[in-house]
Amino acid sequence: MGNVIASAVVSLDGFVADTEDDVGALFDWYYNGPVEVYGSDPGRPFQLSQASADYINATWPNIRSCVIGRRLFDITNGWNGVPAVGDHVFVVTHEAPTDWPFPDAPFTFVNGIEEAIAQARKHAGDGDIALTGGNLTGQALAAGLVDEVAYNLAPVVFGSGVRFFGDYVGEHVLLDNPKVVEGDRVTHLHYRVSKG
To answer: Please, are residues 43 and 109 in contact by the beta-carbon 8 Å criterion?
Structure first.
């Protein structure tokens, strides 16, 4: 069985977007290097530094499923029906869209984080599951469903916005020492959640 990896690009003060859902300078590192890298969409290349490309190429190919919230789905229009990473997206929502123009896209609308991760695990098999930052990450962490945290730290301070762990209120969660990769305008911090 694969791992559930909570992943996002995060400001120094812990935000994945500002109060208007704008990522600002958080994504600068996706387009500032000489190495072309692709997720699942062959029409969406990233231009990364060599260090970031090596890190991403060691991580993204193992992802089979993604779990996202309805907010991200709406902001991105579900990436026009093409998963950003992996080959199937599970969207946590209380109400599936009825007028989305991509009904045959590999997206499943699920009520609740536990059910979404259960379905994502079943789909992924031995592959990994990517979980986007925000309230879903906090809920999954509180439920003990997160195995790893990929904290891609960008050198920017937002002051307010959408927190990586959402409104998490729970027990302290210990992480193992991180794998650290220094990119250009990003530091990749990859942790395993301590199980002991």
So the answer is: no
Cβ(185)–Cβ(42) below 8 Å: no
Tracing tokens 């305008």 back to the chain, one arrives at 185
* Domain 4-192 CATH class label: alpha beta
| Phi then psi dihedrals of residue 148, to 5 deg | -140, 155
Contact call for residues 145 and 83 (beta carbons, < 8 A)? no
| 28 φ/ψ sector (left φ>0, alpha ψ -120 to 50, else beta) | alpha
For the entire predicted model, the pTM comes to 0.94
- How confident is the model over 73-114, as pLDDT tens digits? 999 999 999 999 999 999 999 999 999 999 899 999 999 999
Tell me the C-alpha distance between 8 and 11, whole Å.
Answer: 10
